[in-house]
Amino acid sequence: MVGRIWITVGRLMVVLLFIASTVGARAVVFPTTSMPGAYEKYTLRVMNERAVPTLRVEIHFPVGLRVVSFGDVPSWKIQILTDTTSRITGAVWTGVLPIDRFVEFPFLAVNPKDSTSLTWPTIQTYANGERVEWTSPDTASKTPVATTLIADTTPKTIKVSRTSLYISLAALLFALTALGVALRPRGVDVSP
Q: pLDDT tens digits for 121-134?
């Protein structure tokens, strides 16, 4: 049982590290955790931190992820990138993202069946020609790559034996009896 608790604590620590790794990023994919084999709606969120508009956003999808559909984003055009087998490998959106704004690009995908970490290399191009590549694996970098943890993070049920249950009920009954005795009114002493 103690081993199961440590496994659960370890899983929670991994999830927290992945969430912390996205805090400094300005090109982030949500959700940051998902289940193996799940049919998931992902959203790429990009912020404009420069004094000129963003005109282009490009993302490359992780190997093992099967992208199946894209959501429409008003005033943005999409170009879907594929390989020689027609597998969707990335997408390029073009439009205008004004200063101090953000935009979200939704897409649907089927996760890999095994636990893994997905990375989402993203390139943001500004009107002045500057390109920011959100690709650094270093989470302390100024341009960290967005990540999503694919793992079964649902809490596992712990089986309780009948013996443990009966002992717990007996202890509870004993405690309630002791409390009742302790709170019972005491007789009044009338001796002179």
A: 999 999 999 999 99
Q: Give the residue among 85, 103, 108 at the shortest CA–CA distance from 93.
A: 103
- H/E stretch holding 79 reads strand 77-82
Torsion angle, alpha carbons of 67, 73, 77, 81, to 10: -10
- Neighbour count for residue 111 (Cβ, 10 Å): 22
Given a contact cutoff of 8 angstroms between Cβ atoms, the answer to whether 31 and 90 are in contact is no
Choice among 42-56, 72-86, 151-165 with the minimum mean pLDDT: 151-165
CB 41, CB 105: distance < 8 Å: no
Give the strands of the sheet with 146-150, arranged side by side: 33-34, 146-150, 116-120
Determine if the peptide bond prior to 155 is cis (ω within 30°): no
pLDDT of residue 4: 53
Number of domain units in the chain? 1
For position 80, which CATH number holds?
2.60.40.2230
Residue 161 lies in a domain: no
Q: Would 108 be classed as within a structural domain?
A: yes
pTM: 0.69
Q: Rounded to the nearest 5 degrees, what angle is found at the Cα of 183, between the Cα atoms of 177 and 185?
A: 120
Which range of residues forms the domain containing residue 35? Answer: 2-150
User: Does residue 175 sit within a domain?
Assistant: no
